[in-house]
Design a protein that fits this description.
It is a single chain. This protein has 478 residues and is an alpha+beta fold. The protein is built from 14 helices and 15 strands. It has helices at residues 6-14, 20-38, 46-58, 101-108, 151-158, 175-181, 222-232, 273-288, 302-317, 323-335, 343-351, 355-378, 421-426, 455-469, and strands spanning 41-44, 70-74, 112-117, 129-130, 134-135, 165-169, 184-187, 214-219, 259-262, 292-295, 381-385, 403-406, 409-412, 430-437, 443-449. An eight-stranded mixed β-sheet has the order 6-8-7-14-15-11-9-10. Helix 2 runs antiparallel to helix 3. It starts with 5 loop residues before the first helix and ends in a 9-residue tail after the last helix. The relative contact order is 0.13.
């Protein structure tokens, strides 16, 4: 039961084939059994959740797309009455009086929030560890990270501790954990899901949009993503008086009408050969089903996208950096060449970016967005790596001292975010879909990126790929 898809569980709850209390107790039992070694769920609100589950079971009117479904929420979102820390010791005792707006949307459709899942400090890493709750492990290999920043979300889903999760993504923070843990994760089109109540910024501050980050679902099936995004896609409360969001239907009704672009690797952003190979295999299977699949040359370079993305991203990530760090980065910036695209040079460049320069960079971003728009006149989606590596072993050294191994070569740690950049900088929807396993039995995913606001097209393609590649599989240790 605990590994069934959320939409299937809701149907059983409505038909009284299972009870909400029964499902919640099964998940709490799984947490008691598996969480000590995985450390995905960091705060529980079991007593209140049990009472809510009992009330749901006694209701005659069983309405709501998530009726009676117990779920956890990434600890980057405020949840009423539940400690919400953002992985920051300074916020360790923050107990919100109301839900983040996206969380409230889920609750309004019947979801029962019973816990929070782990994040890195301020959600600023692709590993999930902090000084409050410690390190989250990957259910596929406890010595490896489940990713970040929605790593606790992904680990909890993959290990049957929850049925659905809400994550956030500015540098692959939904998609990379989904890739590392064999799950589905959807980064929505920019600003169609409210981030009001997200941490950071700090408790009491309001995030109404920073130009890059988004909130979105993680799940064990594309159908669960579809149900979730239809709930989550709505205006911020401050705009709801006048605005309404209605996502367009998928672009195609038959795989034979599907037009797929293929982008399996890049010299600038080298990818593990096992990932590239699996993406090509998947593309060939789509071609056999009748889809038009074409490896493409894009109307811009990866370096051009990365330059824009890094200049937009790094100032945001450095907002809370201490004065000493900013002074050090400024000194580094003075010594690097303009064509130096090393990760440290990009961070240093972002540390001194003036607003007048930001305006120019944002104009460059808008030009790229228009090129994507023209590109998607000819293609319905593009298949690409979610990131450059498989789930790797925990490494909590200084950020710029860490290395990743890609095809036997050391790469800078922050190259892990390179493939997140195209969709984030252009505000495009992107869905991670599991497509197989490595020789070491680690999950491999890829991202399906589509046209702005056409999120349902990405998710519909994920359904087709699930049918040919097998979808979510429970980790063998569970």
């Amino acid at each position: 039961m605990i590994f069934e898809n959320a939409f299937e569980l809701v149907e059983k709850l409505k038909k009284k084939e299972i009870s909400s209390l029964e499902l919640l107790e099964a998940q709490l039992e799984q947490i008691e059994k598996e969480n000590p070694k995985i450390n995905a769920v960091v705060t529980l609100d079991a007593d209140r959740a049990i009472e809510k589950a009992k009330k749901a079971d006694n209701k005659k009117n069983k309405k709501g797309a998530l009726f009676g479904l117990p779920i956890t929420i990434k600890d980057a979102f405020e949840v009423e009455g539940i400690r919400s820390t953002g992985g920051n010791p300074s916020w360790e005792n923050n107990i919100p009086k109301k839900n983040a707006e996206a969380v409230q949307n889920l609750v309004d459709e019947g979801a029962i929030i019973f816990g929070k899942t782990n994040v890195p400090y301020l959600s600023a890493d692709t590993q999930s560890f902090n000084d409050i709750f410690g390190t989250t492990n990957n259910p596929w290999d406890l010595e490896r990270t489940p990713g970040g920043s929605s790593g606790g979300s992904a680990a909890a889903l993959a290990s049957g501790m929850t049925s659905l999760e809400l994550g956030s993504d500015i540098g692959g923070s939904i998609r990379i954990p989904a890739h590392f843990c064999g799950l589905y994760g959807h980064k929505p089109s920019y600003n169609i899901v409210s981030e009001v109540g997200h941490l950071p910024p700090g408790p009491g501050s309001i995030l109404t949009g920073n130009g890059l980050s988004v909130a979105g679902p993680l799940a064990r099936s594309p159908e669960d993503l579809e149900v979730s995004i239809k709930i989550l896609a709505s205006p911020q409360v401050q705009d709801a008086l006048a605005w309404k969001i209605t996502l367009p239907k998928p672009r195609f009704d038959d795989v034979k009408n599907l037009r797929i672009a293929l982008w399996p690797n890049e010299p600038y952003a080298e990818v593990d050969e096992e990932i590239t190979s699996m993406i090509r295999e998947t593309a060939n299977e789509l071609k056999k089903l009748g889809a038009r699949v074409e490896e493409v040359k894009l109307p811009f370079t990866f370096e051009e996208i990365d330059n824009i993305y890094s200049l937009l991203l790094n100032p945001l990530m450095l907002v809370t950096a201490p004065k000493e760090t900013m002074e050090m980065l400024s000194e580094i910036n003075d010594s690097v060449k303009k064509d130096d695209m090393s990760e440290l040079a990009k961070v240093a460049r972002g540390s001194v970016l003036k607003y007048t320069d930001w305006v120019i960079v944002n104009a460059m971003r808008q030009k790229i967005r228009q090129k994507w728009r023209s590109f998607f006149n000819d293609f319905d989606a593009i298949l690409a790596p979610t990131t450059n590596v498989l789930a790797f072993k925990h490494n909590h050294a200084n950020l710029h001292e860490r290395k990743l191994e890609v095809n036997g070569k050391d790469k800078e740690y922050l190259t892990i975010n390179l493939w997140a950049g195209p969709a984030v900088s252009a505000g495009l929807p992107s869905t991670n879909v599991p497509i197989g396993f490595s020789k070491d039995n680690l999950p491999i995913g890829m991202q399906i990126t589509g046209p702005y606001l056409e999120d349902l097209t990405c998710i519909e393609i994920a359904k087709i790929i699930r049918d040919i590649r097998g979808g979510f599989i429970k980790p063998p240790s569970l």
